[in-house]
UniProtKB/TrEMBL annotation:
Protein name: Lysozyme-like protein
Source organism phylogeny: Eukaryota, Fungi, Dikarya, Ascomycota, Pezizomycotina
Organism superkingdom: Eukaryota
Keyword annotations from UniProtKB, A to Z: Signal
Signal peptide: 1-18
Naturally occurring in which organism (per UniProt): Aspergillus campestris (strain IBT 28561)
Length: 217
């Protein structure tokens, strides 16, 4: 009996070392949360907006964002506003890429409406609404002397700058438009552009949307 006990005591440390180590990341709930996170990659952004590989040709370098910079900011916006539909994601990214010139601008520099901008190139009216929804700049935006000052508050924060597309979709588009868009059809995309964004669903915008659909699968 003493011999068997001694042998067992000798084997216990070996058996303990043989057990698989507990991975702190192996929590099923944690894995589920990670899998549910939306991840847009720089490669996908480059496919949608080919000129976003670099800022070499950007008219204003301080406004330009590369695909590597845009991807995590866009991913964060989809997670924040719970845009889980790939069809909706494609429409929003395609619109932002077109409006910002492949993410090279976040202000309207052509003669037009002062204060128009963010990557979604929103009008000042929507920028004011958007800023009012963001607690840490809402008061400053309310007290801003003009539309350009409101835009300044938005574009200096990358999260807010790139978050405008997802915010607009989820707060300004009618549910019927979103349902049609979620179908993934061209008619659904046209409804989003015409009935919510309020602009022409022309060939250039469609090209960006088509690339986005292909990139996101």
């Amino acid at each position: 009996m003493q011999t068997h006990l001694t042998a067992l005591l000798f084997l216990l440390p070996l058996l303990s070392n043989a057990l698989p180590a507990q991975d702190p990341n192996s929590n099923p709930n944690a894995q589920s949360q990670t899998q549910n996170e939306i991840q847009i990659t720089p490669k996908q952004i480059e496919t949608i907006a080919p000129k976003s590989k670099s800022c070499d040709s950007a008219p204003s370098k301080d406004e330009c964002a590369t695909a590597a910079q845009a991807a995590p900011a866009i991913s964060a916006s989809f997670n924040k506003y719970k845009v889980h539909s790939r069809a909706e994601q494609a429409a929003v990214i395609g619109l932002m890429a077109f409006e910002s010139g492949d993410f090279k601008s976040n202000r309207n520099h052509s003669p037009g409406v002062p204060g128009q901008g963010t990557r979604n190139m929103q009008s000042p009216t929507y920028n004011q609404k958007y800023a009012a929804s963001l607690p840490d700049i809402a008061d400053a935006a309310k007290q801003a002397s003009d539309a350009d000052k409101v835009l300044d508050l938005l574009v200096k924060n990358k999260e807010y700058d790139f978050g405008s597309g997802a915010w607009f979709l989820t707060t300004q588009c009618e549910e019927d438009v979103r349902k049609r868009l979620q179908s993934g059809s061209e008619e659904g995309w046209k409804a989003y552009i015409r009935d919510c964004v309020g602009t022409e669903a022309n060939g250039e915008r469609r090209e960006y949307w088509e690339r986005a659909v292909n990139a996101l699968g």
